Amino acid sequence: MHEQSLFASVPVHQHHELLQQLAGLTAMQPRHCLERRLIFKAFRKPGLAGRTGASQDLQQGDLQRLNKMLNGNLYYTQVIGSVSEQDFGSTAQIDQDTQMAGTDNAERDGSPSSSYDYERQSWRLEFRDIPEAGTRSAVTSRFMSSAALPRGDVVQAMNAWGYNFVTEYVVEGDMFVHNGIAIFLHRVLHYPDGGDSNLPRQQLPALKDMTLLEKSGSYVLQAFIIVQDGSNQETMKTASQHLFGLREQLKPAVLLEQADRLSLDTRAK
Amino acid sequence: MADSFTLPLRHIHEKRERPDTLPVEIAQINSQWGSFRDVNEEVLRQKMAEEADKDGVSEEDESDEDATDLDSTERLEQLYKRRTEITEFAMKAHMETLFALDFVSLLLSKQLPRQAETSISPYLKQIAPLGSLHAEVVNPPPKPASAAKDISVVSRGWRIQNFKAAANKLLQAASRLETEVAAETRYWNEVLAIKDKGWGICRSPRNGRNLAVQYGFLESTPIFRDRGLAPLHRAQDGSLHLDEGVVPSKASYVRVRVIQDGRLVGYSKPTRSALDGGDTIESRIRQARDTLFEEELFHELVREARAIASFGVTTRENLIEVPGSDDLEILLDLVDADEVQPEDGITRQGTTLAQGIGHAIGILLAYAHRQNLRRRSQIPPPLTPKKPSIPEYQLIRPVLTYIKHISDVRWVQSLLKDLFGVLQSAKLNPPAYTTKSFSIGKQAPAAHLPAVEAFVGQFLAPFESTFSGKILTPRGSFSIAVRTSLSSPPFGTSFNVSFNSPMYPDFKSPGHVSQRQEVEAAITHLLLLDVVFAIASNEPAKPKDDRDAQANRAWDPIYPQHGELLLSPSSPNSFKRRKMKVALSRDELSVEVYKVHCIDGTGRGNREKRDTKSTPSTWSSSAASPDQPSLMEFVTTELSRS
């Protein structure tokens, strides 16, 4: 799949007005989103790279492809989990170590509104390539992929697949949909206690304690459209036409433009 | 103070200080028409006649000319003549212009010889040397006082006239402005009134100078969504009126007609009488909204009807025929709201059904709109070359499901009522059964859904009704689950009949059946077995001591599935046995007693003779008489008779 997108920066004083404008344009109410985003970095497993010998059973083409896979670029990926506002600042500290598996349910049923359960958090894996270089089009186009992950602790599974947990942050924003385009007006929040832990948090702090990444509190407006088959020029063109149409419509409010390619580099160095 | 400030714009007529107006006018008439002395009625009449004659003659002349000038050669001649005349005139004018030019040039040649030379004719240049003519301004002689006075009077008159014209123009402009302001005020007041009633007002997307009112539904199919916006025009007097091109001119609605046994028994009335609100702009908008909704509803109904043609739904140009059940047929069509409906043969029940269906399909369309919004608000699926098709809304299917389901439930109810009625007439006293109608299929309660959507969503799920009850056999029970679904296979109604009969473990529940006859057969069979068991287990109320042997005898259910019971003979060496045959149907329960000669009682034909001593007995719920002996009494008497 390919993702085509346009970006704009929205100062905080314009945020409310833009929300209303977007609600009018898309004829829908904004859908408030809060997402935990975990960053994972791929690592090369020792012993796998540079495989030599015992390859008689492999065809030349397969071998090349395998080598390319094993020795190609490594990427950062994101694991995204949707959370709700009630999940933040849960005061009921459940001691995960001492809690028995059987009592877990009863505890949860007792105070469902105030506790965030890391074990039941659903996740999805989102991969984004570095945006394509040298495209004539004025949109940011990049290869992407998305997959659902099992609930609960993903770190183990990710480690097994060759990814290390790096850090995490929270994205808050509002989602609109217009003419097949998802419009996401969001900003990044950091955890107050810094990111020194090497594991995802089991508990979330209160939302008001979260610190803004961008101190002024400005938002990012991202309009994106996902194309199933990136090699189909026709649909790619349709998608960018849709984006340009939106850019024209939003011109009086914000200026959507292509993002700097290298700032969206996801390759691990 | 500013309010009271008025500025007179018109010239104020001052009293004329000239008493000599009349003498002047008399003098004028005298010089024009001669002395008054000659004027009398005759002269005036003559004058009038002359004037009339003059007008008539000239007109006649013209017409005569037209008539006589038909000759083409003459016309041609005249044409040539006229042309030469015109050329002559032109030549003359040209000559005179040239003379004037020469004259002016010669005059100018004194002052500007170089310039004048260019425009002077060569002939004049030859005969008159340049600069030979000179002009000088001479002081005109002073005008006489009367002339000066005349000029001043005339110029004063001109001024007054101009002032008057200007004042008129200003006053006209003021009054026009006033009406404009009134019109604008009225326009904006009406716009605000509409806005206050909750209608959305926006700038017309097609013409940015106009306002438009949004009355359509944003989640409709695009063709109907785009029609939901009509420009508001301003009439001359400032009143609002909707753009006639967009707004449907007539109120129409989807009429639901219910046909029972080929006769019209009910129809739905327009939900809101759109025209009763008078001809106000608000009622026009409301009517437009309603009609648009009804048109969209019919559009979607036709779309769905085509998709569910397999259920027997047929569509014609402007009519959808939905066959219900039990000779019930539903007709849907789009008609004008003021169409006259026939009144004969209409029943209250039919009208209620038609109205109910009319409301239901409207609610279901609104529900579909909400679902559209929900779908639209999700993150869109990846773009593919293939356009995703919009599934047909569920409008007819829930209604049809309901009709089919209620018909099947009623049938089961009547079946059970008949059968239990028959049993009760035989005084068997079967236990009561319970009915649980319309228990909606189990659904996970979706907490995030609004109550309304969750409520309507139930009607899209399959309907299920359950009948369950106990039978005479201890620990025996039956249950019939009626399930109707048209939105997901298996389509139609299926009955799930299950028994629990500990006396006959071989007797298996039929499980899922789809035919009513099968259900009837299964239930009748179960109850027959039940009756046979009841007879077999019947103990005479007070067995007497001396008839111990007889008391121990009992009817033996030998072939219960055929409803046959056998009574062993009273004396061991007798081959004659008596057989009782029980038959149960929906209408009656009949018991006959036969004499059989073979030992196992299978005898048919010759070996089986009707027992002449006992009369066959029949119980039916319709012809139940209180003095008829009950089944058990019958059985006991038969037992004692042998």
Automatic annotation (TrEMBL), chain A:
<dbReference type="GO" id="GO:0070847">
    <property type="term" value="C:core mediator complex"/>
</dbReference>
<dbReference type="Pfam" id="PF09637">
    <property type="entry name" value="Med18"/>
</dbReference>
<keyword id="KW-0539">Nucleus</keyword>
<keyword id="KW-0010">Activator</keyword>
<dbReference type="GO" id="GO:0016592">
    <property type="term" value="C:mediator complex"/>
</dbReference>
<comment type="function">
    <text>Component of the Mediator complex, a coactivator involved in the regulated transcription of nearly all RNA polymerase II-dependent genes. Mediator functions as a bridge to convey information from gene-specific regulatory proteins to the basal RNA polymerase II transcription machinery. Mediator is recruited to promoters by direct interactions with regulatory proteins and serves as a scaffold for the assembly of a functional preinitiation complex with RNA polymerase II and the general transcription factors.</text>
</comment>
<protein>
    <recommendedName>
        <fullName>Mediator of RNA polymerase II transcription subunit 18</fullName>
    </recommendedName>
</protein>
<dbReference type="GO" id="GO:0003712">
    <property type="term" value="F:transcription coregulator activity"/>
</dbReference>
<dbReference type="GO" id="GO:0006357">
    <property type="term" value="P:regulation of transcription by RNA polymerase II"/>
</dbReference>
<keyword id="KW-0804">Transcription</keyword>
<comment type="subunit">
    <text>Component of the Mediator complex.</text>
</comment>
<dbReference type="GO" id="GO:0006369">
    <property type="term" value="P:termination of RNA polymerase II transcription"/>
</dbReference>
<keyword id="KW-0805">Transcription regulation</keyword>
<comment type="similarity">
    <text>Belongs to the Mediator complex subunit 18 family.</text>
</comment>
<dbReference type="InterPro" id="IPR019095">
    <property type="entry name" value="Mediator_Med18"/>
</dbReference>
TrEMBL record, chain B:
<dbReference type="GO" id="GO:0006357">
    <property type="term" value="P:regulation of transcription by RNA polymerase II"/>
</dbReference>
<keyword id="KW-0804">Transcription</keyword>
<feature type="compositionally biased region" description="Low complexity">
    <location>
        <begin position="614"/>
        <end position="626"/>
    </location>
</feature>
<keyword id="KW-0010">Activator</keyword>
<dbReference type="Pfam" id="PF10156">
    <property type="entry name" value="Med17"/>
</dbReference>
<dbReference type="GO" id="GO:0003712">
    <property type="term" value="F:transcription coregulator activity"/>
</dbReference>
<dbReference type="GO" id="GO:0016592">
    <property type="term" value="C:mediator complex"/>
</dbReference>
<comment type="similarity">
    <text>Belongs to the Mediator complex subunit 17 family.</text>
</comment>
<feature type="compositionally biased region" description="Basic and acidic residues">
    <location>
        <begin position="44"/>
        <end position="57"/>
    </location>
</feature>
<dbReference type="GO" id="GO:0070847">
    <property type="term" value="C:core mediator complex"/>
</dbReference>
<feature type="compositionally biased region" description="Acidic residues">
    <location>
        <begin position="58"/>
        <end position="71"/>
    </location>
</feature>
<protein>
    <recommendedName>
        <fullName>Mediator of RNA polymerase II transcription subunit 17</fullName>
    </recommendedName>
</protein>
<feature type="region of interest" description="Disordered">
    <location>
        <begin position="44"/>
        <end position="73"/>
    </location>
</feature>
<comment type="function">
    <text>Component of the Mediator complex, a coactivator involved in the regulated transcription of nearly all RNA polymerase II-dependent genes. Mediator functions as a bridge to convey information from gene-specific regulatory proteins to the basal RNA polymerase II transcription machinery. Mediator is recruited to promoters by direct interactions with regulatory proteins and serves as a scaffold for the assembly of a functional preinitiation complex with RNA polymerase II and the general transcription factors.</text>
</comment>
<keyword id="KW-0539">Nucleus</keyword>
<feature type="region of interest" description="Disordered">
    <location>
        <begin position="601"/>
        <end position="642"/>
    </location>
</feature>
<dbReference type="InterPro" id="IPR019313">
    <property type="entry name" value="Mediator_Med17"/>
</dbReference>
<comment type="subunit">
    <text>Component of the Mediator complex.</text>
</comment>
<keyword id="KW-0805">Transcription regulation</keyword>
